[in-house]
Amino acid sequence: GSKPRAVDDPAVRKVDALLASAHVRYRESERMIANRAMQLQSMLGELGIQESNTDILDDLSHVAGEAGQTEGFGAISQHYYNMRAGGKTREAALSELQFRYGRRP
User: Fold this and answer.
1) Of the four listed, 2, 31, 53, 75, which is most buried by Cβ atoms within 10 Å?
2) What's the longest Cα–Cα distance across the chain?
3) Collapsed DSSP state (helix, strand, coil) of residue 13
């Protein structure tokens, strides 16, 4: 297999930052969120939809509104999966999640 990336690798730093941000918004542990993102990547893969766990993390981290006002990351990732499985594009699914869970004016 491939060797783990260095801690100061930009990709590792990006994932750390995304996990930290998602943790604040969703109140779930970073480990739980990372596991859900990996799970979602593999579930989408089974549908023939290739999305990296980093992109998933990035996308779903930006969906949430204010810290703590949204559903959990698990619930939102399940909702995203259901929409993608139903044929929605990534953009349409994210837009719907943003509308439903995003910042309130």
Assistant:
1) 53
2) 47
3) helix
Asked if residues 58 and 18 have their Cβ atoms less than 8 Å apart, the reply is: yes
What is the C-alpha separation between 105 and 88, in angstroms, rounded?
A: 26
Predicted confidence at residue 66, as pLDDT, reads 64
Distance CA 44, CA 100 (A): 21
Residue 101's contacts (CB-CB under 8 Å, 6 or more residues apart) are 63, 64, 65, 70, 71, 76
Please, which residues have CB within 8 angstroms of residue 23's CB and are 6 or more apart in sequence?
A: 29, 30, 33
Looking at residue 70, what is its pLDDT? 63
pLDDT in tens, 28-76: 899 999 999 999 999 999 999 999 999 999 999 888 776 665 678 999 9
Task: Say if CB 59 and CB 90 are below 8 A apart.
Answer: yes
Residue matched to tokens 């060797």: 3
